[in-house]
């Protein structure tokens, strides 16, 4: 019987073909299900989030089974890495994140303190397997491979009271700036110095330091007006030494920070990438950042960079 204002002929046609339509609909759904299943099965492994399976290291990364990874870290870079004077062990967000990744993979490891300036050369030479927290750039990636995991913020630290009145990079012409040797900040300041001269202003005097402790001393001893380095490191240093230092300014630079590995060590790169992705997916990296006062929003999806 037709319902409401439905025409009798139209209702008859619908009723007459309902079984045929139902069969076609079921067939269509069945085909779609098979296609979807086939697509899922053919997805590359990289498209799926890796899992922490430490017991499967010999199966997944046979070249790493039984190996002890050697990682270097500068113990004077809190909150990322600092040396506990009581235990002489390294602690910090990078140290804890590295351990989480190693444990996820199932690989043994040793983390040793070393001067920052010697870490990347040691990676390149194969003296250590990796280091955390190195700015990725076009020059460095020619010498080593990177797995980026966070965005960078740059801070300018000065003496308490900011006697030079520095509020931004616009105030740096004619000033002395301390930067890490070979860092992106060194290159930036040299370029800024050229721009200052072109504008008829005094250049930026750049002083380089081999490690962060030396850089902070340049500021404390008033040999440099400011020191440029990681923003979280600046804020931690100011908090620990409020009568000595002050933050002049800070910016989110857009640079990427990563794990540095010897060029072409594909097995290690693959394992670390998988481990880092798994830790990130679990919320582990953000939790570690929050624990050590690093902004969790600085987390960057893990990605391998070889060029």
UniProtKB/TrEMBL annotation:
Entry keyword Signal: yes
Keywords: Signal
Cross-referenced InterPro entries: Solute-binding_3/MltF_N (IPR001638)
Record flagged with keyword Lipid biosynthesis: no
Pfam family, one: SBP_bac_3
Signal peptide coordinates: none
Residue stretches making up the Solute-binding protein family 3/N-terminal domain: 68-296
Superkingdom of source: Bacteria
Transmembrane feature ranges: none
PANTHER family: ARGININE-BINDING EXTRACELLULAR PROTEIN ARTP (PTHR35936:SF17), MEMBRANE-BOUND LYTIC MUREIN TRANSGLYCOSYLASE F (PTHR35936)
Record protein name field: Amino acid ABC transporter substrate-binding protein, PAAT family
Protein species of origin: Bradyrhizobium erythrophlei
Lineage: Bacteria, Pseudomonadati, Pseudomonadota, Alphaproteobacteria, Hyphomicrobiales
């Amino acid at each position: 019987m037709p319902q409401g204002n439905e025409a009798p002929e139209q209702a008859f046609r619908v009723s007459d073909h309902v079984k045929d339509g139902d069969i076609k609909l079921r067939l269509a759904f069945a085909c779609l299900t098979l296609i979807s299943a086939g697509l899922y099965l053919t997805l590359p492994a990289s498209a799926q989030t890796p899992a922490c399976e430490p017991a499967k290291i010999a199966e997944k990364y046979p070249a790493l089974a039984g190996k002890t990874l050697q990682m270097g870290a500068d113990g004077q870079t809190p909150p990322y890495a600092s040396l506990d004077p009581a235990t002489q062990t390294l602690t910090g967000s990078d140290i804890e994140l590295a351990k989480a990744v190693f444990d996820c993979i199932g690989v043994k490891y040793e983390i040793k303190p070393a001067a920052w300036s010697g870490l990347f050369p040691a990676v390149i030479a194969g003296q250590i397997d990796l280091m955390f927290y190195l700015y990725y750039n076009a020059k460095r990636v020619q010498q080593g491979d990177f797995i980026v995991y966070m965005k960078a913020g740059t801070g300018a630290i000065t003496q308490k009271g900011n006697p030079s009145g520095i509020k931004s990079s616009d105030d740096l012409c004619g000033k002395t700036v301390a930067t890490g040797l070979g860092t992106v900040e060194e290159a930036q300041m040299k370029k800024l110095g050229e721009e200052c001269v072109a504008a008829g202003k005094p250049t930026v005097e750049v002083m380089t330091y081999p490690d962060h402790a030396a850089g902070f001393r340049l500021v404390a001893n008033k040999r440099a007006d400011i020191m440029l380095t990681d923003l979280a490191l600046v804020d931690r240093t100011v908090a620990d030494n409020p009568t000595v230092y002050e933050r002049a300014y800070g910016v989110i630079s857009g640079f990427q920070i990563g794990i540095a590995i010897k060029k072409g060590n594909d097995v290690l790169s693959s394992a670390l990438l998988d481990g880092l992705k798994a830790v990130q997916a679990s919320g582990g990296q953000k939790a570690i950042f929050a624990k050590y006062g690093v902004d969790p929003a600085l987390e960057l999806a893990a990605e391998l960079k070889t060029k």
